[in-house]
Every structure is written in C-alpha cells, then in structure tokens.
Model the fold of this input.
Amino acid sequence: MYDAFPWLMHHFPGPHQEVFAFNDFMHNLVMNEVQTHEREKAGDPQDLIDFYLAQIEKTKDDPTSTFNKDNMVQTVVDLLLGGTETTSTTLLWALLYMVKYPEIQERVHREIEAALEPSHLISYQDRKKLPYTNAVIHETLRYSNITSVGVPRQCMRNTTLMGFHIKKGTLLLPNLHSVVYDAEHWETPWKFNPNHFLDLDGNFVNKEAFLPFSAGHRVCLGEQMARVELFIFFTNLLRAFTFQLPEGVKEINTEYILGAILQPHPYKLRAIPR
Ligand code: HEM
Done:
C-alpha cells in the first residue's frame, strides 16, 4: 500500500503511524543538529555535517547535484540507524554466549592475560595477538546472524542472475542466513564454534562464507567501524570481568526475537571484576 500510495498512508490510522513518528523523531533530531552546525560554523570542517554543508554550498549552481539538505539528513539518519543497534546487539549476543559457554570465556580470559599487559591500551591491532578472541567475535557475528535478510534493495534494471530473470523495480532481500549457516562452508553450522575461524595451529583464518555484512557494491558501509568497535569493547570487557548468570538463574534463552535485526531476549548477567 505504502509503495503505491505513500501520501495516502499518512492519513490512515494504523501501526504504520508509529513508524512515521519514529522517522519524524530521527529527522528532527538530525535537523536540529544541522541547525546547530550552521549557527556555530567552525573554521575547518569537523565532521560529516560540516563537510556535507560545504559540499551543498560548493555545488549549489549545479542542477544535477544530489547534495542537498534532505539527502544530508537522510544520510546521517542512515548512519545512526545502521551504526548503533547493530553493534550493540552483537555485543549483547557475545556476552550471552560467554555466559552460556564458560569454557570458551575462560579461554578468552587466558589468551588476553597471556598476550596483553594489564595497563595496555587495547587497540584493533591487538587482534593479531588474540586469534582466539578474534575468532569468538567472528563466530558471534556468524552465529547470531543479526542481519539475517540484509537490507531491502530495489532492482534498477531488468537483470538476469544465474538464469533467474529479475524485473526492474523488484524488491530484493539478500538471504544472508543461508550463507552463514551453509553446511557446505561451516563444519558445525548450528553450533557456536570459534574453531570455524581457526586453523589447526590456532591461527585466525577468515572465511569466504563469512558475510554478516553482506557483499558487493552495497556492502555494509560501517563494516570496518563495527569490527573495530566490537573488538575493542569485547576485549576490554572480557579483560575486566568474568560474566556469569545471576544467582539462582539456571536457564539461558538463546532464541532470537524477530525484527529488523535479530535480538536476544532481555537477560541479566553478573559482571564480576577480575
Ligand atoms: C555488527 C554490526 C553490523 C552489521 C552486522 C551490519 C550489517 C549490514 C548489512 C547486512 C547491510 C546491508 C548490505 C546489503 O544490502 O548488501 C548493511 C548496510 C549498511 N550498514 Fe551496516 N552493519 C553493522 C554495523 C554498521 C555500522 C557501525 C554502520 C555505520 C557507522 C553501518 C552502516 C550501514 C549503512 C549506511 C548501510 C547501507 C549501505 C548502502 O546502502 O550502501 N553498519 N549493514
């Protein structure tokens, strides 16, 4: 309905009104930020909004330019939406798996302790010294499969892909689920198994079928940032704490809640300083 009559749907009551309200909230939030940037014009551009505003100014006489305020606001909203809940949800899954598999958590602790001085400031480079920890993070991204059907895309022209005809305008959802659980590529697809990313000598190995960020021209724009954030947060947390279930709690629910991304059920854990 929305594709056919976008303007009409704004006048109908229903659950979609909630989505519109969230959308308006995000746009207003970013618009306020843009206005603050315009008011407090810095000498040198400091961030994306500053650069974008400068680009709008530079291309204002070019009728073909796509640099305008609407596109800028949408770009910032996309980055906020794509860049926050994805990484934090992956971290929630990672801690849940550490509680569920204490022997894996124990191995991460031992590796961090052996490789890093307690006062060492952890950086992304340290992943080379921590192959097992790095493998645990990769396995979390694979196994939690948070972006199970990627992001919807629209086919721009009539296309034939491996014999399948796809008409211009068709909406496509990449089935990443089928890749990260593909039995031809993963030894134990349905088991949390960091060894998927380790060779026999314990060295980290990447896998062709590791595609939680998808692939191709529209691959996740924030992949590198997500990798860095996950490594630094996870390693710092595991260096500082042992994670356990709260006293008296015996069950761990590792089923997901279906949504735009797959979330774990809310859970509590104990973070015991090490
Ligand atoms: C664990 C973390 C993350 C996962 C699993 C993830 C996954 C994905 C996936 C599967 C897509 C769709 C790619 C496609 O359509 O083929 C995507 C798109 C995107 N992601 Fe991420 N993402 C993560 C973190 C981030 C972060 C930190 C940012 C930004 C700071 C970000 C920004 C974006 C943007 C802007 C797009 C759309 C790219 C485009 O349309 O060209 N993502 N992401």
Summary: The mean pLDDT is 94.
